[in-house]
Amino acid sequence: MEKALFLGNEAVARGAWEAGVRVCSSYPGTPSTEITETVSKYPEINSEWATNEKVAMEVAYGAALGGVRAMTCMKHVGLNVAADPFFTAAYTGVNAGLVAVVADDPFMFSSQNEQDSRLYARSAHVPVLEPSDAQECKDFMKLAFDLSEEYDTPVLLRLTTRIAHARSLVALEERAERAVRPYEKNMQKYVMMPGPARRRHLYVEQRERKLAENCNKMEINRAEYRNLAVGVVCAGICYQYVREAAPEVSTFKVGMSYPLPIAAIAEFAKKVEKLIVVEELEPFMENQLRAHGVACTGKEATGLQGELSVKKVREILTGEKANLPELPAMPGRPPALCPGCPHRVTYQQLKKHNLTVFGDIGCYTLGALPPLSSVDTSLCMGASVGMAFGMEKARGKEFSRHAVAVIGDSTFMHSGITPLIDACYNGGTITVLILDNRITGMTGHQENPASGFDIHGNPAPMVDLEAICRACGAASVRTVDPFDVKAFDAALEEEIAREAVSVLIVKRPCVLLKGERK
To answer: For 398-454, how does the pLDDT look when each residue is reduced to its tens digit (9 = 90+)?
Structure first.
């Protein structure tokens, strides 16, 4: 069998292709981005960058109802945005398989918080699979679609940064083409008004009980007996840490962390003297085991924050310091805007005017760091506009003469339009700067509806940002080039003095875009 060295993300994409997936809709977000980028190279899969994760989930759900296997990929905070359709899709179930791939980011290498997506799945009553290497990324992806169709449910495949971005060998197989399933009108299943929803909730409970029983017999959940003094329950990357740090301990390798195979783990616990749960972030498995009367320890040793490692796990399990080479001390290298980045000039002018700057999620968030030191806030995608308007409500309209909201072109498409409408509709006087660098920059140059190209690089309708802002009700909308410093500075002064919502589209391509003049 042919093998290839794949990132975990690439292996997920390969698994989707082999599983016969036909539709993939996603929004880029590290550490999940490479999944959909890789999927786009498979012509059998109709792939797209959606405007945001909610839309991506809905497109994938619609495709699954239409009878073809479909997927959506996002980072953990993207699941916040997609939660609305995700929760109700658990009630309706599916027609063909539907899988949501969510990449969590312990230690926040590229994120604004640490979230444990397993908690979302438990709340939505959706099963979770956790692969521990690239081969399992591929295999679990295929299994996820089988489970989705067998149990009539969306399935969540959970990655973490180390699984998404680590490489290992993957055995390649052929694609299994799937016939399009017929769609049948079924109001009681697919129309979630209160009456049908109450009945579907009962179905969800029955499905969950069935999964909870059957998962104890699944091969992906298995006991591995070695020295019986210590038994470790672990999943995902933590399984790799445990096996390397303490190869002598017995392990229960969890492949499905929700529903958790309680009966199988309880049987494992009887045969070991001490049971330890090694998991990152929340005590998700530990709490479930304790609730079912399985004595165990875990979080008091592993902690609630950040990543684990081979070194940390060895110290936890053996009490010994890991004999690993120490890396030499390196000078700190905080991230910075690239040389030639048009955002540098923007922040230079905002700092000159001593403005309060409500920031957003993207490259331009780095304007918070020295020497620019301009950004005051960064909360979530699209929040800058709503927060600027909220601060105006708290401190009065005079405050808006000394404040602006900054948001990127892709982020504006994602979730900046609705707060702009809100500010216009409710009589705001805020100034919004759309930093249009012609691409989705922070996640590695993905196209978006304002760039004029689709995921494959084909020409696509380009959203007219000026027209959208005027349609939202902005009293003044104009486009400026930040490198024309005098004109930009004059426009900025005029707009922050305006007694109405105004928008400055600060437009200059990212300096790293192919073909751009340096």
So the answer is: 999 999 999 999 999 999 999 999 999 999 999 999 999 999 999 999 999 999 999
For 88-114, the pLDDT digits (tens) are 999 999 999 999 999 999 999 999 999
Q: Is residue 24 within 8 Å of residue 49, measured between CB atoms?
A: no
Nearest C-alpha neighbor of 126 from the set 36, 57, 191, 50:
57
DSSP letter at 397?
G
How far is residue 395's CA from residue 373's CA, in Å, rounded to a whole number?
23
Phi and psi, residue 304, nearest 5°: -100, -10
Q: DSSP code of 449?
A: T
Bridge partners of 26? 49
**How big, in percent rounded to 5, are the helix, strand and coil portions of the chain?**
40, 20, 40
- 325's CB contacts (< 8 A; 6+ apart) are none
Return the exposure string of 179-215: e unless at least 16 CB atoms fall within 10 Å of the residue's CB, then b. Answer: eebeeeeeeebbeeeeebeeebeeebeebbeebbeeb
Strands 70-75 and 128-129: unpaired
CB of 74 closer than 8 Å to CB of 29: yes
Q: How far is CA 94 from the centre of its chain?
A: 22
Instruction: Report the run of H or E that residue 256 belongs to, with start and end.
Output: strand 256-258
Count CB-CB contacts under 10 A for residue 364. 32
> Up-side HSE of residue 297: CA atoms within 13 Å toward CB?
9
Residue 459 carries which DSSP code? B
Q: How far apart are CA 72 and CA 58, in angstroms?
A: 9
pLDDT at 277: 98
DSSP E strand stretches across 62-197 = 70-75, 98-104, 128-129, 155-160, 167-171
The DSSP secondary structure of 110-137, one letter per residue, reads: S-SS---HHHHHHHHT--EE--SSHHHH
